[in-house]
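Sequence and structure are kept together here, with a separate record for every protein. An example record follows, reproduced without changes.
>
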Amino acid sequence: EAGEQTGQCEDVRADGEAQVVGRQRIAAKRRPAVQAGRHRHRRAGDQRPERQGRTPERPGHLREVPAGSAFDCLEVVQVPTHQPMIRDDKPDLVFLTQQEKFEAVVDDIEDCVSRGQPVLVGTTSIESSEHLSGELKRRGVAHNVLNAKHHEREAQTIAEAGRPATVTIATNMAGRGTDIVPGGNLDSELEALGPDATAADFEAARADWRERNEAVLNAGGVHIIGTERHESRRIDNQLRGRSGRQGDPGSSRFYLSLEDPLMRIFASERVSSMMQKLGMESGEAIEHPWVSRAIENAQRKVEGHNFDMRKQVLEYDDVANDQRKEVYSQRNELLASDDISENIRAIRRDVVDDVISQYIPPGSLEEQWDVAGLEEALRS
């Protein structure tokens, strides 16, 4: 199955017997052999390793940690970039409707293609990527789609994404971690030549790549287009980070509409009033620092909500971890002991004491005793 936001293949997760049966019925129509239902026998999550203070370095996780949070015990160090970052992060453009937004995105893509500038378009879902792909097909713009439906060509698509006038559409998460080299990936091209290639073939490939690389840099580097703001600013920054790497030039811009989920829930009313005061008409976009701040405030609200949920998970994990340590301590003690008769007698005493205390509370009067209930419990 393809994740709605990641665009990458994910394992099927059966959350209940009804879903298992439903999947089996669908499978029976497609193929004769029906797989047996899968059941989760045990699941143990442990949130504690990152909270021990002395953990392995994780260079990919460069993010600020709120003071006083559950993660405040860890020291966070931001590693500076190897080369100065010169990417041009342009202000967001906000439109009234999604249709106006996608038309503006296609116009921007056509402009980049006419100048020979490669474009990476980030979407928040497979549905958005397919919709934008349809718009580009109607305009006759050649492009590649990076999602689960074209999974087998993913490596080749990434390798060619930096070529001049190349358009690549990817979900924000699917595009994360990809290194788009201006001019294309030279190592992939050299490897594709095969073992029979001569030194002249390699030199010709390098010369061709240098020309493409220079053409892309002169056109402004890789241009990043975001069709929607993600709930997390970190994901937006990761999308922007596909351009302007190692000191190369690049640019980025996000296109938004008041119909986007994030805007509709948090920022639609405020931004809509701004656009009305400014006299915005259909097809026009607003570009103002106030709008960017309103969008960032909306993202902060979502991030704060998600942070509270993660913090609650950690608090629940403290209780589960104490129980887990007690159970495994007793398990190890039983495995290491040659004679467990004393352990069994101690467990029997604890069980009997708990049952008796339930029906005859310690320090209670005789009138409060439930002798009949105790006898029934012992018999059962």
Residues 288-336 form one domain.
